[in-house]
Specification:
two-stranded antiparallel ribbon; 2 domains; alpha+beta; 8 helices; Cytochrome Bc1 Complex, Chain D, domain 2
Length: 216
């Protein structure tokens, strides 16, 4: 937390500049130093460590340790690297956590403590393979075509499918299959949600494709 004199904007406590490793992402340049306040002490945890992992049972603790040691957890202001996954409360705080001041007090929220594990993240080259359209073409395009028109009535059109059925119905069909269509249990959760969003929004579809008639 940075605390300033509201009359002149000067910091009430000294601010130190610390050096951090540069980004390893080609073409990305990060700041060589970052400012950190000397006081007050952080009111929320800045780093996830092994000591914070669950001790519910010895087996679960060991499982958590094995998973945790596959990640980086180095505290805030560390650039995300290619392929090397990053894990920690600091990364989480930027996405879902929040600090609020209500006058004489402040509170810090770590939603991951109550709802899910800490966020992890990594970078990978953009080959298009895991882009929304890339997932569609690799999983659905063989039958339904690049323009989503299909070959009715055997293979239905997916143009404006989001206007005809709900996202839950689309998700269920992709996971479990329907009629002649097999299920796709190979899709990871993030790939599945990306694909469903693509089908619902129709992003990148051929805007000239005629809309299918609706059956009552």
């Amino acid at each position: 937390m940075f605390v300033f004199d509201r009359t002149n904007g000067k910091p009430l406590f000294p601010i130190e500049y610390h050096k951090y490793p540069p980004s390893t992402v080609p073409g990305e340049e990060t700041a060589k130093e970052q400012p950190l306040p000397t006081l007050p002490a952080p009111y929320a945890r800045q780093r996830l460590t092994e000591e914070m992992l669950t001790n519910r049972t010895p087996e679960v603790h060991q499982w958590a340790l094995d998973k945790f040691r596959q990640f980086r957890s180095e505290g805030p202001v560390r650039p995300v690297q290619r392929r090397k996954r990053y894990c920690g409360f600091s990364r989480f705080r930027w996405r879902r956590g929040v600090g609020r001041s209500g006058g004489g007090y402040g509170n810090g929220n770590h939603l991951c403590e109550f709802q899910r594990p800490p966020w992890t993240g990594a970078l990978a080259p953009n080959t298009g393979e895991n882009s929304p359209k890339g997932i569609y073409l690799s999983q659905c395009g063989v039958c339904h075509g690049e323009n989503m028109m299909g070959s009715p009535p055997t293979i239905p059109s997916l143009v404006d499918v989001g206007d005809r059925i709900s996202s839950q119905q689309i998700t269920g069909t992709i996971k479990n299959g329907k009629g002649r269509m097999p299920g796709f249990p190979n899709l990871a959760d993030d790939q599945l949600s990306t694909l469903v969003e693509f089908l619902m929004s129709g992003a990148n579809r051929n805007s000239q494709a005629p809309k299918p008639s609706r059956r009552l």
